[in-house]
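dumping these here so i dont lose them again. two proteins, back to back, each one seq then structure tokens. dont judge the mess
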Amino acid sequence: MINIITIKGPASYKEKAVLETQQNVNLIYGLNGAGKSTFSEFLRNYRDEKYNECSIEPKINEEEEEILVYNEHYVDEVFYESSKQKGIFSLSKENNAAKKIIDIAKERCQKISENILKEQKLFSITQQEWGKQYNGYVERVWGVQREYSGGDRVLDYCLTGYKRSKEVLFSYLSSLPKPLVKPDYTIDMLKNQVRLLEAAAATPIERLSEVISQVTEIENDSIFQDVITGNKDSYVAALINELQNSDWVKEGLSFQSKDVCPFCQRPYDDGGIIDELTAFFDRSYESAINKLRDLYAKYADFEKTLLPNAAFDNIEIICDIKREYQQAYSNYVGAIRENVKRIANKIKNPSSVMTLLPTDEILQKLNGVIHKANERIFLFNEKVRNKKIELDKIKSLFWKYIRYEYDQTILDYTIGYKDIENKRKQHNATIDRLREQLEEQKRIIAEQQMNVINIEESIQRINSLLQNIGIDNIIIRKVDDEEMYTIAREEESEITFKTLSEGERTIISVLYFIETCKGLIDKDSFYKKRIVVFDDPISSLSTQYLFAIGRIISDTFYPNIKKNYETGQLVVEPKIEQLFILTHSLYFLYEMTAMKKEHRDVFQKLFRIFKSSTGSQIEQMHYEHIQSDYHSYWMAIKDRTTPVLWANCMRNIIEYFFNFVEKRDLNNVFQQLTDPKYQAFKRFINRESHSLGQNIYDFKEFNYEVFLDAFKLVFYENGYQNHFDKMMKIG
């Protein structure tokens, strides 16, 4: 059963129009041009790609159900394109045994189909539950996009191709293998690498210079181990050496004066003592001291060149080893400064034995840190030169990190997916088994149908109905040795469909279609659940025939209504899956409407197709809305959105009313319209009522207000003001 029909796109359906129903019988009213034909043609040919914006819910299960549509296209295909019609195979009542087997097989088919539907619904629920779980996993992973994509987020490029679809992102992440170990890097580290690459552009970073020692030879000079003293031949040498105060004596000489001894501060007894002391510090002594002073100067100058390298503050890729560098630098500079002090002390105390700190090893450690920094700079420069490759490497590292972080989510999904796939396999196996059972029952039906189907009964029924309707000069005949029908007049040869009157063509095509809905066109086919659609089956029929066709349709397709006396509720027993009847006639609509409200409520629903400024629309009708055709014409005039219908409606209203009330000719009614502005109105309704609204927009004198005034004037001038006001609901 169809629950929802949605139409958008074809013909006048500019916007989406929706029909919703749960009922077995659906009546749809609409004036000509409102969109009924498009509606029925969509149901007849719903697979056509031109209806790709239209839909039927639930979808038609073509293995078990079919839509049969009576409309102009059906009549053209079946009757106008061929002088013979395919035979309709109906079940004969003569072979009761075969009929019983068929009935049992049909019941089994029904039960199997119900089991298939039940299994599909159960699995559908399982799929829905899995869908919720899956959406949860997808939403969780979508957090990657929210966190790393957009704005100034440097890792945004890693998500290229995965930023617009949650499902695509999830599918990609779940396809990646889990890293064997936890990544030893962080997202922040990756961000920094990207920033550095982007900031550096194509400019390499200069290598750092290592420190070259200029004092190794000084540190190894043997002079620091020498005891530097004066001339041993001086008579004061023995005393100085004994006292080991040569450094004190040397320093004291710098304070000598002519009269007072710098050591004892007494007048000289013998002026020769100073000369002896001076002679003690001979040329070799001075030479040694001068060498020490020279070594000191060189060492001190080297110390001044040892400035800290600012690169460890300014270059981001090595800033993490800044402390290591600072410690190595501090150790080296400290050793150099200590040696400067020691050399100065040696100069001050030449006779002392001194050892300088060896700095080569300390320097080696300092240069080791600088070497480490240069290795990073080298690798970075290589990255700069191969920026795209490096960005791709960072991207790969990014996804490895994300895959590891979301491993639990992926694991939960994998387990759930395997479970649903196992259930899907079980479901498919069950469905396949049930369908095999269904095909077996269909085979049984097909075999037994060969014993009971015939085309004669359909011929008899159509001819009998023609007689009952009052058409006794036309019959349907079986073509000799063919499973085909032909139309003939009694006692005459076959005739063509085109030679029949319009009313006769309508009646015969409708009766044939009804038999088609009851039987089979192909004797090897299988009875399916049928959704039957009639589009204006009473077109061009007189009231007599209209009533007869209406009775035949209702007797054939309307459900049986029974009352459950235990519950007091009405029970609907459908004869077919569903019925849709479209008509432009309110009279026919009224005839097809169930009279009892309780019956209408359980099996019937009414709709209206109308055309507005936005195109054709569908709305529900109520029984109280059904009025005569006369009232519908007034409704169309009041609807300013359907100008294409006004000409016919105005003409019909004037004709119906004045012919009924005064038996006046149409032209006589217009005698009061002498104002020139109303002449267009007279031409308009006469012209357009015969062209069915075609080329309306080419009529350049059209003006709704003027035409409505003219229409109003016809009634006012003829004394029917109250009637006009009532119908227009004025005042």
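---- next one ----
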Amino acid sequence: MQGGLVLVAQVFALSLQCSKGLLLGGRVRPAGGIPGLFGQGLGGALGRSKFFGKGIAAFGGGIQCGLQGAALFLGLGAGGGHSGGIWPGQVFLPLGKAGLGFRGGFFGVGLCGAGLLHSVCLVGALGLQLGFLAGQLFQIFFAGFSICHAVMHFGKAAAQAVMLGLQGGLQLVRGQGIGLRPGIMLAAVRQKGGGTRIQGIPLGLGCGFGFTGCGGGSASTTASTGDGTAAASSTESSGDGDNTYTMFMRSAYVDWIKELKWYDVAEERTGIHVDYISGPEEAADVYSEVDQRVISGDLPDAVMTKLAQTNVYGPQGVFADLAPYIEKYAPNLQKYIDDNPDYKALVTDKDGHIYGLCKETPIFADLIGYRVDQFKAAGIDPDSIVTIDDFTKALETLKAYYGKDNPNYYPLTGRDTAIRFASWFGAASNISSTESHGIYINGHYKDGSIDIMNDGAYKMVETMKKWYAEGLIQPEWVAGTFGEADWEAAMLNGNGSVFFDYYNRAEWFMENGGPDNDPNYQMGVLNFIKDDNGNPQKMPVSMKYNDECVTAINANCSEDKIKTILTFIDYFYSEEGEILANYGVEGESFKDTNGDKEFIVDYQTEEATPAGEKRWSFLSDRFTVCKPVDNEAFFKWNAPLIAEATGRLFTDENLGTSYVLKFTDDQSKEVTNLLASVYDAQMSGIAQFIDGTRELTPDNWAAFQQEMNDLGLSRIEEIQLAAYQAMYGA
């Protein structure tokens, strides 16, 4: 059934193309979407018929007007249903939830309201009757067919997308312009595991010209869905240059911003207020909603999105090019861009446009958390653990002490993938100006990606195989079936003693039940593991810039509105704004002694403030306003355990460098497709060597390396290197 309906839609699209190309003779006609396009084709054909004469011509004109009125009603036609559009001999006006179309020459009127579509032409009785009846019946059929198809096969979430797909051949015109591009019908298709994705079915060509406003009006646009198809949308903005603006972002961030004491001071000092619009809880859902808002024309003044979306929607006119406005209105931000060439390369496209601003994040690495009380009971000195061999001996001691009476005890445990230790063996994925090693894509430091071509990778697998055989590492973790909740339970109930994870997780266990289960419960952080000669290994670090936390501005905003938004952002790049965001207000949250700033408010007390109440907090990794980060301040504002550990370990000697790679559309698609098979196959293969499913020998390892290259690992590395060189130079 579904396939048949799709086929019908495609055949219908072909007929539209034929009517446009053959019957209209290539004339430029108003951009009334697919309804208007069909009306143009049919009306033009019948109107030229010498046999039927003026009465039938009026019939065709009535159909055209009614169908374009339908497009207006749905917010799809001239001016997106928010501003009138004017074409030679034709006028289309929004009337609340109705659209009125007037066609000169034969005087046809199309009216659409409350779901009832009418087509009337006032030339002769025959034209009147046929125009009214045919226009109404066809429109009801076409709209009903499309919407029912969506609801039947893809659920209610698809209805809006399909209705939007009726607009077909619309082109964004800011100010005025002429556009010609493919139109599409949209359908929201359910994916495995939930969620939806947008698919496009080509539905012919549309061309038109018109006049729309900017800032306060609306503009129609055609935007990519991410899979190479195009989706029509319209955007709107408040437009007035007052001291407020609206911004859409993740709900958790909105809630958190409202709790910040220093943020209120920022609004007071700038005189600018931001009305935040709460999005979904999960980041992936936030980006999906941005797509939906682009399609539906419901964009606020600014949005939190990801760089990949700004690179698609920006060039198509959805997001404003900020480069000229930053130079004009944001001197502090401009200086930051000029002083940080890596940031400039990230946010600027090849033509010098800036469609989104990434936020800077603290630089940190995973840390080795351990049960201080268990180490002490087993007689292990944490300072004695320097090399891998030392670490292995400590695991063996813990297993002998706690595992003799507890078959569920495994000293080394964790979540997600167990392949997190490549850096300990000098085999972490990395990139330079001349070479790319492993699956580097934007660090992947959390995923434990690894350069399997490095000799250290073989040693890592060999070592972990020993851990597995001796019961030193959680076997379900190796298999990838030990989730976050399992890991947390093991560390809280004594079934695990050591982990390698996010920098503040040791404190998390202290704050989330550890001491409640055992009064002796105490977490600590080990020094980083060094090589066999005692030399530091460079730890993979977080990305300095978060390309999935990007501020973009609606292209429909007036220049005054853009100025307001950039002025607020620019404040945080000033010396005063930086101090406020990283330390707060002098005398209230910090003191300054000859340039040495120290917090005078307590971390534990402030972070324990009940949700919804105002607090001092400076956890910059969670805040989404674009601003520089003071790493020293960030790590000072942590629990004493983490502040001490990060001060001890996060040094230039221990930390590597992370680069954010920006791919072209073609590169991104190719890498995404390759990763779908290569990454999982690589992780699975390594796990098989560790658990003994596959015998670990040099020859078998070499064969595994070749298998990964054949799947596309070497090609991924080529693309990564090309992206690096394009951004940072060879």
